[in-house]
Amino acid sequence: MGTTAFNAEFEKPIVELERQIDHLKRLAADRQLDVQEEIEPLEAKLAALRHDIYRHLTPMQRVQVARHPRRPFTLDYITTIFTDFVELKGDRLYRDDPAIVGGWARLRERPVVVIGQQKGRDTKDNLKRNFGMAHPEGYRKALRLMYMAERFKAPVITLIDTPGAYPGLGAEERGQAEAIARNLEEMAALETPLVAVIIGEGGSGGALALGLADCVLMLEHAIYSVISPEGCAAILWKDAAEKERAAESLKLTSDDLLRLGLVDEIVPEPAGGAHADPAEAAANLESALAADVEELVKVTPDELKRRRTEKYLRMGSYLEG
Amino acid sequence: MAWFLKDRKRRKALRERLEIPPDAWDKCEQCGHVDLSENFDRALQVCPECGYHRRISARRYIEILADPNSFIELFADLRSVDPLQFEGYPERVSRAVKQVGPQDAIVTGYCTVTGFNINLGAMEFAFMGGSMGSVVGEKIARLATRSLEAGIPLVIISASGGARMQEGVLSLMQLAKTSAMIARLREERIPYISVLTNPTTGGVTASYAMQGDVNLAEPGALIGFAGPRVIQQTIRQDLPEGFQTAEFLADHGMVDRVVLRSELRDTTARLLRMMQGLPSAEADD
After folding, report:
1. Which of A163, A168, A263, B253 could form a disulfide with A257 if both were Cys (CB 3.0 to 4.6 A apart)?
2. What is the ipTM of this complex?
3. Cβ–Cβ of B179/A167 closer than 8 Å?
4. Domains along the sequence of chain B with CATH
């Protein structure tokens, strides 16, 4: 990808090197020189640097990767992984919520319903998408589409990328909690396969409202948390600056969650994160999704529901006696 | 000796001179009304003057709802552990256990109400803000399973700030776990009544507290998804009067009824009798 501004301190050396390579390439093009010999080692160095930096990220740095403004969003994956996407809007009750998108699409020719939170690329886009923070209408639209998938025996795929459900006046008035609670109850009993993927930020209840599924995947650098590190730090240590400590404590990275048995599978990202090579990230996700859907469609709806309920009943860590 | 250095005799408080025990009188936090503690207690800790519903313990709710001496506690030996090695969490739990008791943030069990059986859970806000971690989720799931197996209605009285941060996504998954069991109850047509008390917010509202066949709420209770402070910080304006109260939620169609504490038992029993096709309590006598 190009050499736009970096987002985090740890990315500085990468961006710096990218800029050098770019500069050299432009110079060569201008003067019609062959610099391939100079560029090759630099590109090798860049790959090694990416690999090295991304292997040693702290939890808070991984939060920054998960929130990276250039990270592929839901619609990026929908347009690369799926074909025939037909977006369907509105909850049939109040309005359309652009913070959640969804509709019919094909995954390797199989018709599916795909739904996900959509963040904005720039300020204007973010005003429309509300930074991927849905109102109740968004969750109700998602549920309406899930019912449709159930009716036509199509699997549901959800892509999760949200800081959380929107905390606002209208959202509360129209029943944010009710909308999330209803999705959880209905998704637990949905008679069609459900696959959820946390592609970026999995922000608490607002993420889970699309995340109760037979199979939960998580991109390598995605995060999933009950509260943002900033929010946690503010409550526990009365200081948002303690977010590093909070990010560490909350165990929000993909390997933590896999180890805790709360997600089923990690989808590897290219070195340097999904934004370094969106095509590779999408290809990895596509094969993981296709494999899981292939397995799940073989299971009867009753059996799916039974397994799903049992899976969630097992989640929890406590002592008895 | 100058007058201002004179050794003054300290006046005894009026109530000491009158030999009134210090806790004989109580004052309403809401309206400042002063009354005999006995009167507050007789009114189930509702202010006799302004009707403000004070927060009461899980055990008190059980006393109010259950037929006398009918409540048998279940799953009382479940204890929180520290699955994430979260800084300060074990100490926090020990302190709560010492101050409030070992039941974690919910007391669960079964009892009769006007003679018929129910499974009853009452959340304990005094235990870490009624926060839901693995223990709360497990107790509710087991109670719901018991309802499913025995065909007995479920009643849960909520009071909670939401998911317990110190158990991370494990706490978040308790929303999914409890919801999955409520979905099972609905499939099997087992009645479930949710009672929302002050406060019920976050993950608890976003799961079982909102999933009742009937959602009842106590007057004035704060009920919402996001807490008022978070909303205020997000929208940067003052919240309207009465926002996120039980009455506000009733007006907006999210809870079925606002019920006085004094009528909670009667309303719950009436509804559950009808939902189960039982005769009225009067006809049953």
Report:
1. A263
2. 0.94
3. no
4. 23-54 (no CATH), 56-284 (3.90.226.10)
